[in-house]
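Here is the promised in-class demo. Please do not try to memorize the tokens; focus on the logic of going from shape to residues.
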């Protein structure tokens, strides 16, 4: 079985954020990091080379494959911020409609700039994901 690439590392989060080339993306990453740390009560940790995660949980697929991942996280990619906060719940459509300019993918929320979205709605989305993770994977 292949080894998982996305696992907790010893890379310093502050160094990773400081190295983000785009000044706006760097500032946005710092703001998202601060918000997620405050909401989770967990310190940020690098997962793989580019994901900043908070907390951890163990999962097991029906196939028997197991692993560990951050409970919530994000990545300041070149084109946009990627927040790992979606899971396809029907109730997410309404809140996403209030968020502002964004796009979605399977489990991911893509934002070009934090200035494009409503900060309170983004926090609502993050809080909801934390609650769903707490319900599915109690600490």
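The designed amino acids, position by position:
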């Amino acid at each position: 079985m292949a080894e998982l690439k996305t696992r907790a590392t010893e890379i310093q989060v502050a160094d990773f954020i400081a190295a983000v080339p785009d000044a706006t993306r760097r500032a946005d990453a710092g703001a998202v990091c601060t918000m997620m740390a405050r909401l989770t009560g967990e310190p940020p940790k690098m997962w793989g080379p580019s994901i900043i995660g908070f907390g951890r949980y163990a999962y097991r697929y029906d196939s028997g494959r197991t692993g560990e991942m951050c409970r919530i996280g994000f990545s300041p990619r070149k084109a946009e911020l990627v927040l790992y906060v979606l899971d396809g719940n029907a109730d997410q459509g309404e809140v996403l409609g209030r968020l502002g300019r964004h796009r979605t993918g399977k489990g991911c929320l893509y934002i070009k700039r934090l200035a494009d979205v409503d900060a309170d709605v983004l926090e609502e989305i993050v809080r909801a994901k934390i609650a769903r993770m707490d319900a599915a994977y109690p600490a």
